[in-house]
Amino acid sequence: MDARGETSVPGIFAAGDVTVTPYKQIIIALGEGAKASLSAFDHLIRTSAPA
After folding, report:
1. Which among 3, 10, 28, 29 would be 20 to 30 A from 22, CA to CA?
2. InterPro entries under this entry (predicted)?
């Protein structure tokens, strides 16, 4: 997983307890979730859909 939450599978993002982020607190999970969702949105608008 990179700093944006993207996994080794393109288009798959991770956040929360499935990551290796230290200090598993709810506020950290919320921030990680927001970051992953914004990264996923960015990925979707920059990637063309197959025809």
Report:
1. 10
2. FAD/NAD-bd_sf
